[in-house]
Amino acid sequence: PLLLQSCALREEGRHQRPDSGIFAALARWTLATALRCTGCAWREAQWITDMTDTQPLYDLAPLLRLMLLGSPLLFIFIVYTSLMRGVGDSITPMITMSLSIVVGLLTTPALIQGWFGMPQIGIKAPAIATIIGFVVVLLHLFFYTRHKQHPLAPDAHLLQHIRFDWPVTKLILRLGLPTALQMVTSSISGI
Questions:
Q1: What's the CA gap between 150 and 176, in Å, rounded?
Q2: pLDDT by residue (tens digit) across 164-186?
Q3: Angle at 187 between CA 185 and CA 190, to 5 degrees
Q4: What is the C-alpha to C-alpha distance for residues 83 and 85, in angstroms, rounded to an integer?
Q5: Mean pLDDT of the chain
Q6: CA–CA gap between residue 160 and residue 158 (Å, rounded)
């Protein structure tokens, strides 16, 4: 998130749209990484639950798969709100997070119990509520930023720049990999 915010801040002082190439490369790289991780974890979800002999963990495999299926939406949300904070807009990310929480609080019990004619899906309800929440939030961000003519509003100009850019990818990896390694090392050292 700090890399995203610093990239967005470069142009913020000039009240211009952030560099579309960097924004697009970060968004593309994040989405590709999220999809790869989701695919690998989707395959391994059953293996994770099979490692234990306990029935409760085995019953959670469908929930795990659905949560992994929704993880790219979470990554998109994190990237987009980090960039918004980088251009000085901290209110919109706060509102969208609140909206996501409200949607989750309303849809989770409704899906568990089958209220208001919704299907009663039990253990899968939190994952489906999370996916519904992020879809609602991302749609809200799309329409809200376009309505407000926000510098980060998705439009044709931004979509033209969504292509693979090796120099920007190398920059992201050069800055991001040492940070990720440091975070993993500090997490492991706490065990």
A1: 27
A2: 677 877 887 788 788 878 877 88
A3: 110
A4: 5
A5: 75
A6: 5
Q: What is the pLDDT of residues 34-76, one digit of tens each?
A: 666 666 665 665 555 565 565 555 567 777 778 878 888 888 8
Q: Report pLDDT digits (tens) over 9-38.
A: 444 444 455 555 556 666 666 667 666 666
Q: Tokens in use for 32?
A: 């590709």
User: The tokens 């999370």 sit on which residue?
Assistant: 130
Give the whole-angstrom CA distance, residue 21 versus residue 159.
10
Amino acid at 35: L
Euclidean distance between CA atoms 10 and 23, whole angstroms: 12
User: What is the phi/psi pair of residue 37, to 5°?
Assistant: -65, -40
